[in-house]
Amino acid sequence: MVQPGPGPAGRSEDEQEENYARLRKPLQAKIFTAELLEEMDAELSALHDALPSLPWLEVVERKKGGAIVLSPLEPA
Q1: Contact by Cβ (8 Å): 18, 24
Q2: What are the C-alpha distances in Å from 43 to residues 47, 54, 59?
Q3: Least enclosed by CB within 10 Å: which of 3, 53, 57, 69?
Q4: Beta partners for residue 58, in sequence order
Q5: Which region holds residue 9: left if phi is over 0, alpha if psi is between -120 and 50, else beta?
Q6: What tens digit of pLDDT does each residue of 33-44 get?
Q7: Which pLDDT band, with edges at 50, 70 and 90, does 3 fall under?
């Protein structure tokens, strides 16, 4: 039987659980990834919806996808 050793960077499992709890993130990789993908999808959708109303941002066509072009800021 293999004894569980310390986790990444010498941390114990208890320390790892405590750190993830503080960050409000799950320990299970699949759940973490699913939540992250859901959050990214929501934020990218919000950006997509806001694009037409952002005068300082433009997406231009390129061979391998769009490029984001930002207008220069006005001098202060």
Answers
A1: no
A2: 6, 16, 17
A3: 3
A4: 69
A5: left
A6: 999 999 999 998
A7: very low
